Amino acid sequence: MKKNSKVIMFIAVLLPLLLFVFPLWKITLEAPQYPTPLGMYIHINDFSDANPHDIKNINLMNHYVGMKYIPDAIPEFKIFPIGIISTTIIGLLIAFKANYRWYLYWFILMVLLSTAGLYDFYLWEHDYGHDLDPKAIMKFTNPDGSVMGFQPPLFGSKDILNFKAHSYPQLGAFSLGIGMGLSLFAFILGKKEHKKSQA
Fold first, then answer.
1. 3-state secondary structure of 157
2. How is the chain split into domains, by residue range?
3. Among 47, 99, 135, 140, which one has the highest count of C-beta atoms within 10 angstroms of its own C-beta?
4. DSSP-assigned letter for residue 44
5. What is the b/e burial string over 113-139, where b = at least 16 CB atoms within 10 angstroms of the residue's CB?
């Protein structure tokens, strides 16, 4: 009979695969001139509109202040899927074959990779919001005279001129987080099961 910790670990390592089904993140822009907020979903391998033509409208709007167009693809769209598939395979091997201590190692690996992914997302947002075309039609400056940036928040809400930008995780990110949490729980449970078997 399988130990409960192994079953939980098996579920934990499969949950991140839902990133291929559900979006990872969503950025929304609210403004008086847009009765329906503009938005975009960030998937593990793609961008998509929250409403029809949202990304096109965001690109048109951003063009006036010199921001780059949101590309059809970025290098991370090739790297992230490979990372999730690789860690899932590693996790399955651990769940089937390894000692409960390896559940903790998988958890730590996922924490490190997720942190790196969030940092990469921040850098992408920073470049997108600050690397502006000096020939832009419209230019805005801060009170100190420096060029105003238009970086959306990594997490939460932020006022940018007359826009309110929102940035929040979606079902894909929650699936990843729950999977990571379950792997830590599986480690704790496995440790208790080991002690009980030794008693």
1. strand
2. 4-198
3. 47
4. S
5. bbeebeeebeeebeebbeebeeeeeee
| Helix 76-97, helix 101-130: angle, nearest 10 | 170
Q: Rounded to whole angstroms, how far apart are CA atoms 125 and 127?
A: 6
SS3 content of the chain, % helix, strand, coil (to 5): 55, 15, 30
SS3 141: strand
Cβ neighbours of residue 6 under 8 Å, at least 6 residues apart? 95, 96, 186, 190
Given a cut of 80, whether residue 100 has pLDDT beyond it is yes
Q: What would the pLDDT profile of 112-168 be if each residue is shown by its tens digit? A: 999 999 999 999 999 988 888 888 788 777 788 777 888 899 999 999 888 999 999
Which burial class, exposed, middle or buried, applies to 57 when counting CB atoms under 10 A from its CB (0-12, 13-18, 19+)?
middle
